[in-house]
Amino acid sequence: MNPLIEVNNLSTYFESGAGTVKAVDDITFRIHEGETVCIVGESGCGKSITAMSIMGLVEGPHGKVVSGQIRFGDKDLLKISKEEMRRIRGNDISIIFQEPMSSLNPVITIGRQIMEPLMLHQKLNKKQAYVRALELIELVGIPRAEQIAASYPHQLSGGMLQRIMIAMAISCGPKLLIADEPTTALDVTIQAQVLETLRQSKEQSNMSIMLITHDLGVVAEMADYVIVMYAGKIVEEGDVEELFERPKHPYTRGLLKSKPVIGQRTEQLYSIPGQVPSPFELSESCYFHDRCEKCIPICRTRQPQLKEVESGHRAACWLYEEEAEA
After folding, report:
1. How far apart are the C-alpha atoms of 97 and 212, rounded to whole Å?
2. Alpha helices of 64-185 — where are they, by DSSP H?
3. DSSP assignment string, 97-130
4. How far is CA 167 from the centre of its chain?
5. Distance between CA atoms of 144 and 55, rounded to whole angstroms?
6. Strand bridging mode 36-40 / 225-230
7. What span, in angstroms and rounded, lies between the C-alpha atoms of 28 and 73?
8. Where are the domains of the chain?
9. Which residues are within 8 A (CB) of 187 and not within 5 positions of it... i.e. 6 or more apart?
């Protein structure tokens, strides 16, 4: 099956007075039609910058995509014009940002904000767009659609705003929906409703989802395929069941160990020792070596490459290089 979107050797850097930050460093992955791919990792690992790079939103004097290719259909999104990218953004590829209150215009009604992409991309008139906006509000499980459409963002709860963001994102029937931490700061009941809304939207249109999260519970519930990032690099990837049952990279194992398990009593949850390295002090070593319980001498001097360790399961770890050589 041909991938819907293919990211090849993508690197996005930011310049600062202290040096260069390699926010995303030479990553490659693909997403197929109807597939949910979860990108997981600690804050600052490059998840959101990967999404912003795909959407063409890394701009300005300090940050830019320095290399790579983002194939979407027959186009390389890094080489098309800004006007062509605007036609794709919000239409073929949509994004749900992490904080809906800062993503919605506080002085424009909810209905008007849902109508805008419909009028821009679908060429609907105001009446048609309004009718469709009401349908979308109901589709994401919010009652009293006309009242909600006439409301302003500050009049709605966080969970309702996040579902409005989903309504806006799916309004034009995108092929790919990028959801950046869509359930952050929501209670578990609302979180479940938001995830169910995403799942139903996917099933109705065979839409692909790129879901960014640090919550392994969300990953287990939603993902078909999982990508684990650390310090701007992909350290492991594979099918969700395979990765949860047989994690290969010590970092992935640490993440899974740190999650509480129902029915198990423990006085203190496991936490990965040490700190994420400073982006200004990254060397040619494995970035995880000083936090790793399995560290061997070569980890301190050379960086491992992402390689297949089992069928369809890849990891960047010298432990498997050593086993292969043996």
Report:
1. 10
2. 82-88, 100-103, 110-121, 126-139, 145-149, 158-170
3. -S-HHHHS-TTS-HHHHHHHHHHHHS---HHHHH
4. 18
5. 33
6. parallel
7. 16
8. 5-107+152-325
9. 159
How confident is the prediction along the chain (326 residues), in pLDDT tens digits per residue?
Answer: 789 999 999 999 998 888 889 999 999 999 999 999 999 998 889 999 999 999 999 977 788 999 999 999 899 999 999 999 999 998 999 999 877 778 899 999 999 999 999 999 999 999 999 999 999 999 888 999 999 999 999 999 888 998 899 899 999 999 999 999 888 767 888 888 888 888 988 988 889 999 999 888 889 999 999 999 999 999 999 999 999 999 999 999 999 988 877 777 877 888 899 888 888 888 889 999 999 989 999 999 999 999 999 888 999 999 987 543 43
Which residues of 164-247 form beta strands (DSSP E)?
176-180, 208-213, 225-230, 233-239
Distance CA 146, CA 130 (A): 9
One-letter amino acid of 188: V
Domain 5-107+152-325 adopts which CATH fold?
Answer: Rossmann fold (3.40.50)
